[in-house]
Amino acid sequence: MTQMAKYPHEVGVKVGECMEAGDLEGILSLFHPDCVICFPPEEPPKYGHEAVREIFSELIAAKPRIVNRVTGIQECGETALLQHDWRFEDAGGNLIAEGKSTEVVRRLDNGGWGFFIDCPLGPPALATNI
């Protein structure tokens, strides 16, 4: 089901709600169509809704509860930079994974906000040959 984040800081919360509900279409609606996802960090970035579908299909299967806490935000017009502390928990509240993310969100065509650049474990390191 289509979701809408009215404010930049709501995007992660809405994605978490969709994950708990097993709502892959809702998650897709919270990502910009031209998004980039830097996950897993040892692999090249992935692009667009196909990447979102691939990554989140696997995550939803584990049925985690995601806890997000925005630790930084800077808005500029139709774009915002966010930092989150996050954790995935199982149904018993046991830790599955945690991290500190960096994301760029942009205004979507529906008037809401969605992830444009999603780096769940922070930005990728520079290549050594740069």
UniProtKB/TrEMBL annotation:
Recorded hits in Pfam families, A to Z, give: SnoaL_2
Query: Record's superkingdom?
Result: Bacteria
Residue intervals passing through the bilayer: none
- Coiled-coil-forming residues are none
UniProt signal peptide: none
**What Gene3D superfamilies has UniProt attached to this entry?**
3.10.450.50
Alphabetical list of InterPro entries matching this protein: NTF2-like_dom_sf (IPR032710), SnoaL-like (IPR037401)
Domain SnoaL-like: residue ranges: 17-92
Q: What is this protein called?
A: SnoaL-like domain protein
Q: Which organism is it from?
A: Roseibium alexandrii
Q: Which lineage?
A: Bacteria, Pseudomonadati, Pseudomonadota, Alphaproteobacteria, Hyphomicrobiales
